[in-house]
Structures are given as C-alpha cells and as structure tokens.
Amino acid sequence: TAGITQAPTSQILAAGRSMTLRCTQDMRHNAMYWYRQDLGLGLRLIHYSNTAGTTGKGEVPDGYSVSRANTDDFPLTLASAVPSQTSVYFCASSAGTGDTDTQYFGPGTRLTVL
Amino acid sequence: GQNIDQPTEMTATEGAIVQINCTYQTSGFNGLFWYQQHVGEAPTFLSYNVLDGLEEKGRFSSFLSRSKGYSYLLLKELQMKDSASYLCAVQDSNYQLIWGAGTKLIIKP
To answer: Which of A18, B67, B88, B106 has the fewest CB atoms within 10 Å, measured from its CB?
Structure first.
C-alpha cells in the first residue's frame, strides 16, 4: 500500500511564480491536511479538508489555496510564491476527524523560493 | 493563546532510559499524540492518550495528566535508531492538532 504520496520531492522556485504541490492518498481517508514545517517551529496547519468537496483554513492560510474534488487528491497551490514560503510541506490524512483519528503523513516536499 | 512546550534537545546513552516532557495550554482537549520524526523523513505515529495514566507500547510508554496539562514519552532500552525528533501534539476543541516544536533526541554509544 502506497499510503500518501507527494510530488515533487523538492523544488526551487523563483519568487512570483506559481506552483502546485500534489498529494494523493489511497487509504480512502475522509480528512486531509497540509502543514508546513520550519526549523524551530512546530508543524503549522495551512488548510484542511474534512471530506471531499469541503475545505477549511488553518493557522497560516495566506498565500495558499487548496481544492478537494475527490477523496484521494488534495493539491496545494501557491499563486505567487514569496521567499517566506520556503519550507518543508507535509500532506497528511486521517480516517475521520474524531478524537482517535490518527494523522498519517506523506514524505514531504522541500520547497525553496528564491 | 495555544501553546505546547517541549525541551529543544536531549542527549541520552544507548541502553538507558529517557523521559521527554510536554506541557500544553490549549483551547479544549480531545487527546494528545506523540510522533517520531527522523531527519529528512515524515512524522510517524507513536502513541495517543486521552485519559489520565500510562499507555505502554513495547519500549515506548506515554503518560498523561489532564489536570496538570502535562504528558511525557518514556523510551526504554535506547537504541541508536531512536535518535530522532519527538513531536507532541494536542487535539483542541475543534479536533485540530496543535504541535510542539519537537525534541531532538541524541543517542550516544
């Protein structure tokens, strides 16, 4: 079972350019999440989706957008990248959003914005 | 505001025991998770506590005291492969996870 896959593994992007980070899960999980991880800080939630067709804003949503057209895919788009968006991005999923629903993470995308 | 505190770094010796503490102040509480993260890899689930007390899973145990806003992860019989960061996360009243910055554990032979 692949679990959660993310693409690309890493990317260098010029400031002002747009980019979509891809995330696909094969566990039929209802909920999906996008986090960024920066040195010295905890994982911060960017956007989430509790079920296909719905999305919500997390702690740091500015500059990012998401869509959830189906259960498996949850792409994250940076419309006009800025250097402060340099980070490692993790996609995660969970079966539901209850108190026992563990989040499982993809391998991450390392993004550098110059 | 919401806050999760963990030590930044700890060092321990192979074969020994180490306790990693986590204190939290959050808007509501629906459970506490511990994850392990090796350098360059994704976080992986270790344990979940929602009731007070100790949960044991092999060499790893996790303790929770809700009244004190406190948890710890206990690692026994340390192995070199346990060198990693350990992340504490609390599920708040909206069932969102609030994450600590992680504790980097260095194991020395």
So the answer is: B67
